Amino acid sequence: MSENVSSLLYIVSGVLFIMALRGLSHPTTSRQGNLYGMVGMGLAIVTTLVGHPPAGFGAWILVLLGLGIGGGAGAVIAKRVSMTAMPQLVAAFHSLVGLAAVFVAAGALYAPQAFGIIENGHYHKQSLFEMGLGVAIGAITFTGSVIAFAKLDGRMSGKPIMLPQRHLINALLAAGLVLLLALFIGTESKALFWLIIIASLVLGGLIIIPIGGADMPVVVSMLNSYSGWAAAGIGFTLGNLALIITGSLVGSSGAILSYIMCHAMNRSFISVILGGFGGDTAAAGPGQVETRPVKQGSADDAAYIMKNAERVIIVPGYGMAVAQAQHSLREMADMLKKEGVDVKYAIHPVAGRMPGHMNVLLAEANVPYDEVFELEDINGEFPQADVAFVIGANDVTNPAAKTDKASPIYGMPILDVERAKTVLFIKRGMGSGYAGVENEVFFRDNTMMLFGDAKKVVDQILKAF
Ligand code: NAP
After folding, report:
1. Which end of the chain lies in a sparser environment, N or C, as judged by fewer CB atoms within 10 Å?
2. What are the TM regions of this chain, as residue ranges (predicted)?
3. How far apart are CA 413 and CA 416, in angstroms?
């Protein structure tokens, strides 16, 4: 296959990746988006294999083994993973992207002829720069992602671990890395290449360890962005257009996603990177227990109130995902609609543990898209609603975000559930949300707490109907 044809096919796969990202931006088109992504990736792999075939039978076997083992493991893991474990899965996969960048750069360094990056016994300076930078970003992404995975998966405390003098140590390490990179480009020393890797591995760990569990999804998205830039850097070394396009798409979309998350949580990106928010309760689960009295109701009470309502707004949160209550919830909404009740769903941009978490679960339960509304589109409707049905959500409804300047969620936009005539709150106990702050709405006169697992409570309400 000529270089022109393979370049053209790489561009086609790049266009398919862009169409995939576009498709993934809405639940109605997300399956199609996934399909575009798969076709694009398939095309890129075939183009690479045909355009630059592996040298010999042994190399073919290695490539096919890699495809089979990697693809097979990916398919099995993706099938088995639960929706709530998705953030840590993404973190684990990013660590592999980082590691791949390190291996590819090492491969290029040790077999420069194969990549055409050496002339008269000297590497191209530009290639040395790309390899050094790519390997540094790749190694930082690797250890950073492994620690993010461990924190999100509960294998390591989600609590921010404040190492003494960490900013100074990180700054010194970063400065040392720049120096090593400059020396590597100047001397072409393989030992310096490995030193860059070691320093970057340490730096990746040190950057992520102090960051609390609550900020981890932002960090995962940021690492996603890093891994993209690492891949793009290596793409230049290999002269592989597909890698440059894909890496840049991943790099920029990860950066945009980090920005959107920070914006939705009213957190500055810098303060996330400097660490120290939430986390503790994330690891501790239900959080602290409140002793003030609350009004408690039963499934029968909830069924009665909702049957007699005209408008019900459902506010799902992380607890709905944990309980997998979305199917029962849709059944409940269907029953209410049969009774002539107007039912809508209000989605907060950071409800759950990743952007779009609630949309995906509601789509899985076949909730009609036209009943699902974003925060800005529905917030004004709470005063006209008879019932705000809050199911496993907490922080995203907490008015402290508007009133308490000292609160870690101050400034985050929230769903104004307390403005509905009645607020029904389903949760297991009086535990706080992910940010670890108390929610005054529990104690309001118009609030009724329905204690229990979200799915069980909704099933009881269904029976009571
Ligand atoms: P939340 O504030 O974490 O609250 C979830 C509530 O669900 C908890 O208070 C818990 O109370 C309850 N719960 C847990 N398991 C349950 C079960 N099986 N049945 C019933 N209730 C259950 O959740 P949220 O309101 O969705 O807010 C999301 C939080 O995550 C925000 O602080 C946001 O900033 C953060 N975050 C989100 C993203 C994102 O992209 N979505 C990214 C980073 C951070 P009990 O323990 O009393 O049951």
Report:
1. N
2. 6-24, 33-51, 57-77, 89-111, 131-152, 168-185, 191-211
3. 9
Angle at 133 between CA 127 and CA 220, to 5 degrees: 140
In percent, the amount of the chain with pLDDT more than 90 equals 57
Give residue 337's Cα distance to chain centre.
34
Residue 282 pLDDT class (50, 70, 90 cuts): very low
Cα separation, 120 vs 311, whole angstroms: 77
The active-site residue, picked from 215, 280, 395, 416, is 395
Residue 395 known to be catalytic: yes
Cβ-based neighbour number of residue 167 at 10 Å: 10
Give the nearest ligand 1 atom to 427 CA.
Answer: 21
Distance from Cα 94 to the centre of ligand 1, integer Å: 24
Class of domain 299-464: alpha beta
Please name which of 95, 104, 102 lies closest in space to residue 143, comparing C-alpha atoms: 95
Cβ < 6 A, ligand 1 pocket: 214, 217-218, 261, 265, 286, 317-319, 322-323, 350-355, 357, 392-396, 426-429, 431, 433-435, 453-454
CA-to-CA separations, 315 to 106, 154, 300, 344, 415, in angstroms, rounded: 50, 27, 20, 9, 8
- Amino acid present at 315: V
Question: How many Å lie between the centroid of ligand 1 and the Cα of residue 429?
Answer: 13
Residue type, 6: S
Query: How far apart, in whole angstroms, are the C-alpha atoms of residue 67 and residue 58?
Result: 14
List the one residue out of 167, 384, 134 whose CA is nearest residue 236: 134
**Which of 261, 294, 360, 434 best tests ligand 1's pocket when mutated (most atoms within 8 Å of CB)?**
434
Statement: residue 287 has pLDDT above 70: no
What pLDDT is recorded for position 221? 85
- CB-based burial of residue 127 (10 Å sphere; 0-12 exposed, 13-18 middle, 19+ buried)? buried
Strand, helix or coil at 387?
A: strand
For the chain, the domains span 81-273, 299-464
Angle between helices 241-264 and 216-238 (to 10 degrees): 160
State both tokens at 58: 């042994």
State pLDDT tens for residues 302-319: 999 999 999 999 999 999
Q: Which among 93, 70, 89 has a CA at the least distance from the CA of 81?
A: 89
Name the one residue in this structure whose structure tokens are 């690891």.
Answer: 283
